[in-house]
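Recap slide: Flavin prenyltransferase UbiX, sequence and predicted structure.
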Amino acid sequence: MIVVGITGASGVIYGIRLLEALKELEIESSLVISDAAKIVIESETDYTVEDVINIADTYYDFNDLTASINSGSFKADALAIVPCSMKTLSSIAHGYGANTITRVADVSLKERRPTVIVPRETPLRSAHLQNMLTLSQEGAIILPAMPGFYSTHDSVDDQVNFIVGKILDSLKIENNLFKRWE
């Protein structure tokens, strides 16, 4: 079971497509959407928040610190925060588990579970880079939403699939979402 957190950074389509790919691969998913992400979903996509929630197998409220996924005894295989805002990244790097996404990230890191963070910001400040380094040193995989162009993307969907494919690769999940370098 993969926990997916979607935060209020631009690029929520990456998180939505990850949920769709997990469903296609018949891999169970649990979802948390930040309050800001709900606004971005409506702004950047044709999906409603309900549409996105319905893709996941289980949904947890953003402000429910008693959610089962916030416990180390809950058996999640991995966590992906896609996209990850700099506010969320900073909170995780500094151990500030004030909501369900930052708390599940804290648990995932302390339990040494695969944790993929997909930051979405440009340009980056030194503080952003330092927070990414801190998380990397704790075992998180920092996977910026930077599509490769060697597989001749024909559309934005192809570029989104490239990043989602790389996320799945990082989680050791077989996929064919993008053309691999040969």
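The radius of gyration is 15 Å.
The chain has one domain: 2-171.
(End of recap.)
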